[in-house]
Amino acid sequence: MNIKVLVATHKQYWMPTDNVYIPIHVGKEGKQDLGYIGDNTGDHISMKNPNYCELTALYWAWKNLDADYIGLVHYRRYFTKKEVRNIEAKKNQILSSADWAQLVLSAPVIVADKRNYYIESNRSHYNHAHHSEGLDVTEQIIAEFYPEYSDSFTKVCNRTWAHMFNMFVMRRDLYAQYCEWLFTILGELEKRVDISGYDVYESRIYGFVSEILLDVWLEKNQIPYKEQNVSFMEPQNWIKKGGSFLLRKLMGK
């Protein structure tokens, strides 16, 4: 069984040595070589990385990578066996080739553990964190292009939990189906939303919207999936993160 998990990065960083992982330089087009495979080879959208984030790696794998299962993680976020506090110990918890070979037998799709918002829905959380037109226009596109997905879109937007980070591992046939659907929607979204006035953070609109769309696709197609722990490989400032969340909730910022 051939399983490949891309590690999206934009800089040199510690990488797992297990050959299941392929470091990929996202947004490499026009940038200095980091020594990793670039997302600017073959059929690619590398130049869209400032707006599509890690999705340029997702697209590259769809068009250029041959494997039975394809996945995506981030240079600072990995699927792990369990959560531990020590950063070095976290590295030892990252799933190995053998772990993945067993895990994909349980479900055709592996996603990150649910992220719970408790006091707000996915839609209200998105609207507090980003420009609301991202989801509003996406909803219109789905109604026009894929109306059979509209009920699932509403259901997912009304949930208080989601599978975030665009992290998953999928069986190849499902991966291709998902990418075809996802990039069709995002391509249309590009045509309809003027982001020329967005700041650098909000310009990542297509990456943000796609985090919601993953669950919409899973819900509509009733794809069996298994959730797996995700570890962040650097210390986090929870006071700062919590403060930012409350500011968005109370002030709409």
Please tell me about this protein's structure.
With 253 residues, this protein is an alpha/beta fold. The chain has one domain (3-251): Spore Coat Polysaccharide Biosynthesis Protein SpsA, Chain A, CATH 3.90.550. 43% of the residues lie in helices and 17% in strands. The strands form three sheets. The chain has a seven-stranded mixed sheet with strand order 3-2-1-4-9-6-10, sandwiched between helices. It has a two-stranded antiparallel ribbon with strand order 5-11. Helix 6 (133-145) crosses helix 8, helix 7 (150-158) packs across helix 9 (205-221) and helix 8 crosses helix 9 (205-221). It is globular. The termini are far apart.
Layout: helices, strands, pairs:
Elements: E1 3-9, E2 21-25, E3 37-38, H1 49-52, H2 55-64, E4 69-74, E5 77-79, H3 87-93, H4 97-103, E6 109-112, E7 115-116, H5 122-129, H6 133-145, H7 150-158, E8 161-162, E9 168-171, H8 172-192, H9 205-221, E10 225-228, E11 230-232, H10 238-251
Parallel strand pairs: 1-2, 1-4, 2-3, 6-10
Antiparallel strand pairs: 4-9, 5-11, 6-9, 7-8
Helix pairs in contact: 6-8, 7-9, 8-9
Outline of this structure?
By secondary structure, this protein is an alpha/beta fold. The protein has ten helices and eleven strands. A seven-stranded mixed β-sheet has the order 3-2-1-4-9-6-10, sandwiched between helices. Strands 5-11 form a two-stranded antiparallel sheet.
CATH architecture: Alpha-Beta Complex
Order of helices and strands: EEEHHEEHHEEHHHEEHHEEH
DSSP helix count?
10
Side by side, the strands of the main sheet go: 3-2-1-4-9-6-10
**What number is the mean pLDDT?**
94
